[in-house]
Amino acid sequence: MTGVPRRKGFGLGRVEPILFNTFNTIFMICLVIVTLYPFLNTIVVSLNAGNDTIRGGIYLWPREWTLQNYKAVFASGTIYNAFWVSVARTVLSTLLNIFLTTMLSYTLSRREYVFRKPITLVFILTMYFSAGLIPGYFLIKELHLLNSFWVYILPSMISAFNMIVIRTYIGTIPESLIESARIDGAGDFKIFIRIIFPLCKPVLATIALFVAVGAWNSWFDAFIYTSSKQELSTLQYELMKLLSSSMNSNNNPNVAAGAGMTQDTAKSLVTPLSIRAAVTVVASVPILVVYPFMQKYFVVGLNVGSVKE
């Protein structure tokens, strides 16, 4: 007797994936909106007339288009020299930090090195204890680094935290590769250049991004160590001075509006809110340009130490 085939019902097992995918899609869309909106709003404010911005209600589209905010940022002739100083500082700091920190990490990862534990302890202590700003200033002064470009480079050549991260990653590299190279007659430096350094690309890209962002965004060291030498001023320090002068100026849009200001004059007005938005965009663009090229390494590098074989 042939049974009547059962019709597959629309059971809970088939509903669960649909509900999960729907919820996951809605959640990710909301997360993207929440993440991107602040930056998009900053761009919109930077392209809106300063006098109109203080009225509020600027969200995803400028109400009165203007480039006056960016003109105010680039009006100073010192901004261009400061840009190249920041570029040189970021590139040199990143390259030296990556190479020297990786070399130190490889040395401290070797079990046959008898001083690796005490040296590692010394570096870890620097992460918890600091001499402070004033002793640091006197140290820089005694090293004759005041008003010198190298004050941006030398203090940042080695990072204790980066050393620990890279050393952890080097520990995941099979020891058999190093032993095979030694059998073939390779020394430590050749092993480091030919084997360790190329295999550390994911973690090095991650560390390079952190170091580059830190060097690019830094302005306090320029304020402390090179403020008396204009040609060594960095982009972030110049933008900080511009923002500070804008906030302290008497260019009050409410007062100007009461004085019978024309529409063209209103659009040319620069307010602290609008100049701050333009400064944020100008400072962020170089990092946003570099990040997509390092993203695939960045994702891999974040997983350092998460999987053990």
UniProtKB/TrEMBL annotation:
Which InterPro entries has this protein been placed in?
MetI-like (IPR000515), MetI-like_sf (IPR035906)
Show where the ABC transmembrane type-1 domain sits.
Answer: 83-294
Report the subcellular localization.
Cell membrane
Chain segments annotated as coiled-coil in the UniProt record = none
- Report keywords, A-Z: Cell membrane, Membrane, Transmembrane, Transmembrane helix, Transport
**Keyword flag Cell membrane:** yes
Record flagged with keyword Transmembrane:
yes
Q: Which Gene3D superfamilies match?
A: MetI-like (1.10.3720.10)
Q: What GO cellular component term, any one, is given? A: plasma membrane
Superkingdom, taxonomy of origin:
Bacteria
The membrane-spanning stretches of this chain are: 21-40, 83-106, 118-138, 150-170, 191-216, 273-293
Stated membrane topology is: Multi-pass membrane protein
What GO terms in the biological process aspect are recorded for it?
Answer: transmembrane transport
Family statement:
Belongs to the binding-protein-dependent transport system permease family.
PANTHER family found in the cross-reference section: ABC TRANSPORTER PERMEASE PROTEIN MG189-RELATED-RELATED, POLYGALACTURONAN_RHAMNOGALACTURONAN TRANSPORT SYSTEM PERMEASE PROTEIN YTCP
Report the protein name in the record: Carbohydrate ABC transporter permease
Source organism: Paenibacillus lentus
